[in-house]
Fold this sequence. Notes:
Blueprint: H1 4-15, H2 38-59, H3 61-67, H4 71-81, H5 96-103, H6 105-110, H7 114-128, H8 145-150, E1 151-155, E2 160-164, H9 168-176, E3 190-196, E4 203-208, H10 210-219, H11 224-234, H12 240-256, E5 260-265
Antiparallel strand pairs: 1-5, 2-3, 3-4
Amino acid sequence: MSSLRDIERTLTSIWMEKQPVESAQSLSCILEGEKFDEDGARLYARLIGYGHSDVLGSIYPYCQKVLNRSWENTLKRYVQTFPPDHFHLNSSARKFPQFLKNNSPELMQKFPYLAELADYEWLEMELMEVDTAISVTEKTPLTDPQSFVSLGPLVNQTLQVRTYEFPIQEIVDLIENGKGFRKKFRPKESHVAMYRDPLSHRVRIVDVDDNARILLAEAGKSSYGDLIRRAVELNPDRAPEATVTDVIELVEYFHEINLFVGERNIGA
């Protein structure tokens, strides 16, 4: 008896016209005595194709807009290179960034930011499906000097920070406004913090600079005072007082947007 995975792969091949429908007659063995229905197989194969198209289009809408007329052909090449290996349709799309980077040199030459754009979109989808329970607790106003030593931020457990070679958030904003599809973007390192908001349950995306990226990477094991000292080290040519003010404001902002969801007692 054929497995459902074998059936899906066979019908996907029919949809992509890699094999004639007649060669799929072995699928009739799933039900003894059931006559193989060629027209039904073709119809179901098309439905499989529509499913892949809808799923990838919903996960990678920005890539679809950039590729425009090349989208359908790119989708077929992707499925041919990475056939579905999971019944969860969203999972069948997870290797699309890898496909663009390693298997689409002509597209990457034309749109060198495309693989990073796909990674950005896949990460957003992944975080939408995160089922981690996140509790938001009260924070202490940073007015008592002792609190800088005894307390540290509790980082949202779903936080993911990506560093890209291109200004991905800028590119996304332009695409959303119907612009930038044919613009030649120069490499410009950017950092994106992405996480699931515990109150709205939506994915939030924040563009951060290099200093904020470093502080976020160290926040889970640092006190507020440690973060301030680190920021002063990162900005040796700036007045320490100004850096302290900036870090406090940044910490308050991260708590406000639920990137920080509470506090840790240092040493507890």
